[in-house]
Amino acid sequence: MQATLTYEEIEAGWEGIEPSPRDNGSVEMIVRRPAREEREALESAIFTAEAGLAGDDWLRRGADPEAQITLMNSRLIHLLAGEKSRWAEAGDQLFVDLDISQDNLPPGTRLQLGEVVMEISPLPHTGCTKFARRFGGPARKWVMSEEGQLERRRGVYAQVIQDGLIKVGDRIRKTRSA
Q1: N or C: which end of the chain has fewer CB within 10 A?
Q2: Which helix (H) or strand (E) holds 134?
Q3: Beta carbons within 10 angstroms of residue 147's beta carbon
């Protein structure tokens, strides 16, 4: 397990990372959560407007349609978690190489990922105590800073609009701006 980074180490590391693309990004990892505290990395998955990620426990978690799918920036989780095998600990279903900031993807923006179309939710995705336990208190503080919230460092919620298949490596493009 990687040691947690200090706030200053996170800041310095983030400043040294090239920004993700604002459009035409890519799906880097798909993670299904079949039950509480369980994670399965998948090469491809079906996403539906009714169930979100097929086989995920989202429906048992309260099923808010605006919080159906979570996307997190892959460059950021790599900074916090290190090896890719730890990315799933964040609890998100999609890790993407795409600028997910509020400036680039305001609520209502639609994205095409493989066959699937998703719409960005207005709900904020916040760093919980589990996130702090897994990646450290400084990481939670950093993602929830004012700048962190604008950049959506903790991630962003989306809702499935068009059902289909997403595969690791699929391109992500904006189909409609808000």
Answers
A1: N
A2: helix 129-135
A3: 11
3-state secondary structure of 118: strand
Query: 123, 150, 41: which is closest to 90 by C-alpha?
Result: 41
Cβ neighbours of 72 (radius 10 Å): 27
Any idea which residue has 């800073």 for tokens? Answer: 145
Q: What are phi and psi of 131, to 5 degrees?
A: -60, -45
CATH superfamily of 7-176: PK beta-barrel domain-like (2.40.33.20)
pLDDT tens per residue across span 115-139 = 999 999 999 888 678 899 999 999 9
> Residue written as tokens 């509480």?
36
At 149-162, the pLDDT tens digits run 999 999 999 999 99
Residue by residue, what is the 3-state secondary structure of the chain?
A: CCCCCCHHHHHHHHHCCCCCCCCCEEEEEEEECCCCCCCEEECEEEEECCCEECCCHHHHHCCCHHHCEEEEEHHHHHHHHCCHHHHHHHCCCEEEECCCCCCCCCCCCEEEECCEEEEECCCCCCCCHHHHHHHCHHHHHHHCCHHHHHHCCCCEEEEEEECEEEECCCEEEEEECC
